[in-house]
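Hello K.,

You asked for the raw outputs rather than the summary table, so here they are, unedited. I folded two proteins back to back in the same session to keep the settings identical. This is the first:
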Amino acid sequence: MIYQTEETREKILAGAQQIFVENGFEATQMKDIATAVGISRHSLYRYYRNKTDLGFAVYTRIFSGFESEITAILEAQSGNTAMNARQSLIGGILAFYKLPHRQMDFRFLAEFDGFNSGSRLPSDFLENLPEPDAHRLFATLHEFIQRGVKEGSIRCDISTRELTQTVCYSTQSLAYSLLARGEALYGVSKSERDRMLDNLCQLLERGLSP
């Protein structure tokens, strides 16, 4: 029987996330995580089979808190009677990606997604993703777009599902790219980089208009 505690598991996940961000997912080894957490490699392997297994666990841990947080942000935005559903949606997404306490989470997701791409993408990658939480997050955004279509603030010539996919993945991709590459973005000054996500959100809001 393998003895495990939730306290140690949380300690491992928090430590692993930090090391993955600092060293990069590819360069990080299980021994690095064990050292950072203060346990033996043998103990670490009692909890996670390998680095990929641990990476997915961190991924799931992060996503578990996203749905409730972005829902609260969107609801707060929609509480402003001066804003329609389209403005609430885009304003909420922008506010979400600028949350100070989520920056480390976004950095990990950018690193993890960047590593698991192209020829390195595991065949079972999608099966290992936190489907329930990711689905609820998508559903929350979809609900706001449906609300916007119903009230007339969002276009109806493209399906609400496709609009949700476009808004979700375009903002996510840019946010992750800005974190992952930072100053390495070719031909982009710091001031331009700082405005890029805001600019994208402005373009999306206008593009969502009827």
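The second followed immediately with the same parameters:
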Amino acid sequence: MLTWKDVISFSVKGNLKPTIRVEKTEQEWKALLTPEQFRITRQKGTERAHTGALCTVYKPGKYHCVCCNASLFDASIKFNSGTGWPSFTQPIHPNAIQYEKDTAYGMVRVEVMCNTCDAHLGHVFPDGPEPSGLRYCINSESMTIKEETIKDE
């Protein structure tokens, strides 16, 4: 389980190696994404709080990067943070996310990106629920969900 100490270490000393890399030109990303997805994932934008389509979705499934389809988060660790963005306590795999110190807008935060394609996802904060204490605050436009069907036994 990743902790805030791990997040800070990755943002300062370097990230884990991704399983694979996906690289495209700016024109290729523009052809693949909607203008809003491009603005958020490739230009480090954000959506307004409480406007994202995935904010109130709590169905079983896996969240994937909208750019490269890499697995990012499992729905089982999603929680309602009340912040207006989908929030998670852990990435699906330790190397799914990359971390970078973000000093924009006069604050110090840790930006989270897809480790496969460098898409901006959002930020991580140390004010989440136990046991990790992490809150990955992610833009809905940066993800898709692949829902899982629960079968009765």
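The radius of gyration is 15 Å.

Happy to rerun anything if the numbers look odd on your end.

Regards,
P.
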